[in-house]
Amino acid sequence: MTDHSSDALTALTSLAGPDALIEGDDRTPLLEEWRGRWPGEASLVLAPGSTEELSSIMRYCHAHDLAVVPQGGNTGLVGGQVPQGEVLISTRRINRIRDISPGDFTLTAEAGVTLEAVQEAAKEAGRLFPLSIGSEGSCNIGGVLSTNAGGVNVIRYGNARDLVLGIEAVLPDGRIWNGLNRLRKNNTGYDLKHLFIGGEGTLGIISAAVLKLYPRPAETQTAFLAVPSPAAAVELLSLVQEKSGGAVTSFELMNANLLELVLTHFPDLPRPVETRTPFYVLTELSAGRQGVLAEQTEDILSGAMERGIVSDGTIAQSQGQAHALWALRHNASEAMKKDAAQCVKCDISVPIREVPSFLEKAGNAVTAEAPGARIIAFGHMGDGNIHYDILAPDGASPFGDEKGARLEHLVHEVVVAHDGSISAEHGIGLLKRDELKTRKSDVEMEMMRAIKTVLDPKGLMNPGKLL
Question: Contact at 8 Å (CB) between 48 and 54?
């Protein structure tokens, strides 16, 4: 930011409206990344109350060369939402649900609406918005789309990019692009919304979106299963998908280290199965008609046990039991935070068939570099997304930054060797910005920089992030 004058403060506060300026202690939560990794600093913190107010702010900042950082619910894990002295713009007050059309299976929500609120609004309309992540009670739709969030239901419904029909965005110069298209088919040139979905606020700020809704399942079956190996889990995924006719909504893998860590830090959660195995699977199936899944699920899992790819398991007999099983998965990040002040966190994806080989080779690389390190491997195996986290040996000092970077690099080397991605759903932000250019081709980087230059020629949008 080049203008810290009181004139800028007065002008921006006037443009944003009297309730938009955030000062004093109210700023603190917006400047703190939840793990404390990147301390934030902002010259101004503004929360406009409408797309029009946001547009006015952006127009002024563009004219006066003031860099801006957009922020949703501040739940990001790669530092993309953290200001480094720029004007911080929170979209939390742009938070209306503008339209719900059950017949069209669409819902139009503004950027500051929480994911949970969208889910509830869809439910009240007799519909389902299937995107589900651990932070859904606090993350906002704008941030979810800007990072192209994934979650536990990608295998059935796709990630955020697949759940959007149209968006409204404010461009770096303040112009409003109304791309709130509700059509399933619109073959009229470049699909511009995909520049902003996953763009991490570097090309503009998403202010609203038309989201896809789905019929609500009439029946679900949730099972927690002990499996002897990741290879067995891959075979199990294929079996359940085939025998259920594609009814699998979620298929989550977790290693024994994670299960024990969660049970240690959340002792009220029951141990789901007595058999101790190196890996476990949490899977959920859903159907549109009541009474078709229970027997089918039992038959499938009985067959899996006969084939030796499942050694033990439990099927939830109530919604409460299902929630308890899911709590084992959703409390993973919190359990690691309780256990260690610092850990190396890798959010990667590889082709599903490569997951067993990746886990084996990454484990060998990590233990060779850091003997005794505790490897926490879990995630959305149904789409090849593994959260591969590394904690220091129990009772040892945390890894330093240099050691952590070395471990992360080793894991990413294995990822690339398996035709994978160093970021599956969390984005690039500050954390992986410098590594990105070493993992993408020169052609890819040139295309991305060219797009950035055209839409944000002054480089004012979330500077230093992604690129």
Answer: yes
